[in-house]
UniProtKB/TrEMBL annotation:
Database matches in InterPro entries: NADH_UbQ_OxRdtase_FeS-su5 (IPR019342)
Complexes and interactors: Mammalian complex I is composed of 45 different subunits. This is a component of the iron-sulfur (IP) fragment of the enzyme.
Bias type Basic and acidic residues, positions: 94-106
Keyword Electron transport carried by entry: yes
Chain segments carrying region Disordered: 87-106
Protein name listed in UniProt: NADH dehydrogenase [ubiquinone] iron-sulfur protein 5
Gene: NDUFS5
Keywords: Disulfide bond, Electron transport, Membrane, Mitochondrion, Mitochondrion inner membrane, Respiratory chain, Transport
UniProt key word Electron transport: yes
Family statement drawn from the similarity comment of this UniProt entry: Belongs to the complex I NDUFS5 subunit family.
Length: 106
């Protein structure tokens, strides 16, 4: 920790762009993935890049899943494919409010 907060005094911010979720948010609320980013940064702090990549892989994967939602979208795609297969085989009929055939509401 520096003795003087030179960046703060001069009004410049050189390195906060590295931490996307830690930047100031509207209304002062924490960002959605802030906790995952914090865990990843705390895990890798002081280890060095090579060791941090190896030892903090789980924290990094959690953070990236929170940011990009890749596993969630893959799971949703599989569910929709299964539903389409079941409809084609005649084992499942979607309810009327899912097909758009329901009477419009006032």
């Amino acid at each position: 920790m520096p003795f003087w907060g030179l960046q703060k005094q001069l009004g410049i911010d050189v390195d906060s762009f590295l931490l996307r979720q830690s930047m100031p948010q509207p209304h002062g609320l924490a960002a959605v993935c802030h906790a995952f980013e914090r865990e990843w940064v705390e895990c890798g702090h002081g280890l060095g890049q090579t060791r941090a990549r190896r030892e903090c892989q789980l924290e990094y994967e959690d953070f990236m899943e929170c940011m990009q939602r890749t596993k969630l979208t893959q799971r949703l795609r599989l569910i929709l494919e299964q539903r389409d297969r079941m409809i084609k085989q005649g084992k499942y009929t979607p309810p009327e409010h899912h097909t758009g055939k329901e009477e419009p509401r006032p």
